[in-house]
Write a structure and sequence with these properties.
heterodimer; A: mainly alpha; 4 helices; 75% helix; B: mainly alpha; two-stranded antiparallel ribbon; 71% helix; 4% strand; globular
Chain lengths: 130, 275
Amino acid sequence: MKLPQKPEDKSKLENSISYLLISGVLLSLTLLITGMVLLWQKQGNVAISQDPAVYVHGHDFFSFIYQEVTNGGLNGLPLQLITLGVVVLLLTPYVRVILSTVYFARERNLKYVFITIIVLIILTISLTLH
Amino acid sequence: MHNMVLLGAICVLVGFLGSLTGLGGASIITPLLVLSGIPVKEAIASAMVAIIATSSGSAASYVKARLANVRIAMFLEMFTITGAIAGATITTFISPVLLYFFFAAFLCTSFLRIHHIRRGFIPSEKQDRVSRWLNLQGSYYDEAAGETITYRANHALWGGGGMFIAGIAAGMLGIGAGAFKVTVHENILHLPPKVSSTTSNFIIGMTALAAVSVYLFSGLLNLTLMAPIAAGTTIGALFGGRVLNKINDRILQVLFLFIVVYLIVTMLYKGIISL
């Protein structure tokens, strides 16, 4: 009943995860660097600020993202871009778990569907805690 | 280090070293930030972002090269995330001074691996039922050694227990607890050194994400601090991910121990002067 994993199946999951991660970090990097350059142009220096506006506040992870996407421009474009960069960075591993769950479900690999769903549930709970 | 450009440049090196050793880099950046006058809790919170950047940036290469084992990682993540939530909750109740000493003591567990450096990797002959049932095994091509290494994980449930403890430490200290995870992977699960460090690297992003939400909304995350840290470590990790497989196992293990010694010294120093 236990079939060995077919190498081409295995490579599909690994390649998808790899592409997802690289796209996530490159998008995040672009947003962060653009945000920092704009911030430098706006305030004329590259100092690490202690201004209350540069601190992230919110209820939980998901409502924070929603809030950021709908009215994140309150503190100006540079800080909005940096926040989006951080959001993309944080979402990348989360999407990676969803992707893996979908993959194992399509493969009907029930053991790993179970494992990935548990990881997804605990992770989702942890992201809604505050 | 009150300058984003300087901090970003230092973080390139942190991300590079963190991705090569499986340490993630938070344990390198946290003491640096603390020494430059950033409050310890703020430093810990920002370092979580560095872990996620290092993990995703280097895992893209590690997963593609089959160095990081996705199945083993998924299984272990169940345990370590649960631990991370517990740890991050505990840390809001205890004094930061205690954290320094706990941090230093925790890192000492890394020396458990010293004998492996002399002996080299010997594949496990046996495999327990849980590991076999979960198909926890794999193979990869080691570019430095010029051969394909095949391995089977052993003692899956003990490994899970170790990862739960690692998760608690990660949540409490704002590190990926990569040092402890690598030790669990090598000594309990009997994974080869590169599989141990890269699988740890893959997992720590998840652990950090689980813990970061606790910090996200306690007002400790400074965007002008996080942006250079995240950008710098991502760039460093992208480089690290490309060169790891070309480096000899022993060099990586010695590098790992050097960084750990540095970390223990910095944390003890900081702990003692804040008493």
